[in-house]
Amino acid sequence: MSTERLEPERAERAALDAYSQVVTGVAARVLPSVAALAVRGPRGAGAGSAVTFTDDGFLLTSAHVVDGATGGLATFGDGAEARFDVVGTDSLSDLALLRVRATSAPPAELGDADPLRIGQLVVAVGNPMGLAGSVTAGVVSGLGRSLPARDGRVVRLIEDVIQTDAALNPGNSGGALADAAGRVVGINTAVAGYGLGLAVPINSTTRQIIGDLVNTGRVRRAWLGVAGVPVPLPPPVAERTGQQRGLRVVEVVPESPAGVAGIYLGDVIISAGGRPVANGQSLQRLMLGPAIGSRLPMTLLRRGAFVDVIAVPAELTR
Predict the structure, then answer these.
(1) Which of 123, 211, 258, 266 has the greatest number of CB atoms lying within 10 Å of its CB?
(2) Total-model pTM
(3) How far, in Å, are 63, 245, 256 from residue 178 at the CA level?
């Protein structure tokens, strides 16, 4: 066999070896922290996965996995079993917090999904179809996806959802999506179709939600009382602000915080709290507990002129 032919084969083997080393390394690091869940609730028996992330037995899973349940049984990779209690759920982010009564499972490291790039390697760890400790690998195939979530009559979008082609099946929900360093960057939440998996990202917003669940067992959200649609900004405004889109107001709830602040139909919201507003999700990101009762400076575009207002978001009641 010629040297010219051997070199590509060696390079291919080296690449495959490197890929295998990354996946096996992530599996070794994350698998011990992932539990299989057996849940019994009002709708009958169910199953899913959960990720241990603290030394004192807190686990993350998907809210829909434990919907209506108060507890269940967690089985870890070493075969150890422990009863768990549901500490709190947040349907609008599809995240839930569990606590096991005794565990020796090591906590996984929570990472940050914001630096993820399309094409980046990710590894999904969970318990699909009752097959405990399953590992699949793939790439980030999309970022910035939105996933509708409902809590009673309230419907919101879970923003910045990660799309991956790592194989996900029933039972994977609540499991870990990890980067090449073994950091958990997402909680697998749904199977949207063949070859398509979604995960709720671990980022500053979800960390706030997790913190609320740990501290109080619930997530407080703020309410502004405004709805809008994204629109392109006029070129002079885009050049001045450095952003291409704003949020045109199409509805203001009477006597809402937005109405009291003097926001009107047709206004284009440019920024809120010093952050650019390009769509409804940009505002949703700000509407967590710390915003309740706090002054929220907002810049609007009204008939070609910039207008500054101060809104004070109220607590969202369901």
Answers:
(1) 258
(2) 0.80
(3) 19, 32, 41
* Contacts within 8 Å (CB) and 24+ apart, 139-147: 139/164, 139/165, 139/166, 140/116, 140/164, 141/165, 141/196, 142/118, 143/116, 143/117, 143/118, 145/198, 146/281, 147/94, 147/189, 147/190, 147/198, 147/200
Between CA 118 and CA 164 the distance in angstroms is 9
Contacting residues for 53 by C-beta, under 8 A, at least 6 apart: 33, 59, 60, 107, 108, 110, 184
Average pLDDT over residues 237-251: 93
Mean pLDDT across 117-136: 82
- C-alpha 74 chain-centroid distance: 22
The count of other CB atoms within 10 Å of the CB of residue 19 is 13
Q: Give the SS3 label for residue 83.
A: strand
Query: Active-site residue numbers?
Result: 64, 94, 173
Can you count the helices (H) and strands (E) in the chain? Answer: 5, 20
pLDDT of 45 > 80? The answer is no
Separation CA 80–CA 27 (nearest Å): 18
Q: Answer yes or no: is pLDDT of 71 > 70.
A: yes
Backbone angles phi, psi at 208, to 5 degrees: -65, -40
Lowest mean pLDDT among 14-23, 26-35, 205-214: 14-23
Q: How many angstroms separate the CA atoms of 185 and 197, rounded? A: 14
Rounded to an integer, what distance in angstroms lies between the CA atom of residue 28 and that of residue 208?
28
By the 8 A CB rule, do 269 and 283 touch?
yes
Separation in Å, CA 150 to CA 137, 174, 226, 264, 304: 30, 17, 18, 27, 37
Given the DSSP bridges, would you call strands 268-272 and 296-302 parallel, antiparallel or unpaired?
antiparallel
3-state secondary structure (DSSP) of residue 77: coil
β-bridge mates for residue 288, sequence order = 221
Q: DSSP letter for 48, please.
A: E
Using an 8 Å Cβ cutoff, are 266 and 228 in contact?
no
In whole angstroms, give the CA distance from residue 66 to residue 68: 6
